[in-house]
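Need tokens for this chain, all 279 residues.
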Amino acid sequence: MKRHPVTGVGLGLRRDFLDDFLLNPPEIVDFIEVAPENWMTLGGELGEKFAEIATRHSVTLHGLSLSLGGPEKLDEYFLHRVKHFMDKHHINLYTEHLSYCSDTGHLYDLMPIPFTQDAIAHVVDRIKKVQDVTGNQFAIENVSYYAAPMQQMAEIEFINGILEKSDCQLLLDVNNIYVNSINHGYDALDFLKQLPCERIAYCHIAGHYEEDADLIIDTHGADVVSSVWNLLSEAYQLFGVFPTLLERDFNIPPLNELIDELQQIKRHMTQAKTNQYVA
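Here are the structure tokens for all 279 residues:
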């Protein structure tokens, strides 16, 4: 059985509910996730609060600015700072989006990497560099995208090629698969079946905004919809139950409302385990 770097139910830590999380730590939360860019340079009271939380929960990092597919040289100074942050707080997993966000400057958005063999080779070299510098596990997240410039292969072929050649892990985002399936007209379950289950580190689930019948915007600013919950259940049935984290970046409700969705994750996990036991 695959050993995951974290276990159970996770929550993306946000400053909006930081104090509440400290005063009343939700028992259902087994691990937290933070963007290193937002936390690793903090000192003072906020730094102390994060350090306290990091002693109570397992922590994973989900980066925003590494720009894996970008043309510019990787920022090794930044990577060394990430490594220091990981060592300081005993964090063993760093993840990033399979996208790029910079050229000669920062683009302030996650841009799609062309689905080409050259891009696979480029990204694989950069992933290997990240793993060499940090000396820790690394995972890439399948991202939502709205255009596929210079596409030479299917998205699934592109992702699997990078996973295999870089020997890194996958941060599986179920909502992104659903969003892309609507926007680009493919079958979400068929896509899911083609992913290598042995590489799944953990999973993201989140909400989105339906702009139109054939256009969904990945916002992380709403409750998870039933179609995404159903896809998560399908993933559990296919691959077994894996750690799953709730993302909420905008329109963040009180912590107790987020706990309701975390409990839904737990119920789906329990149901999947029951079904697998019966089978």
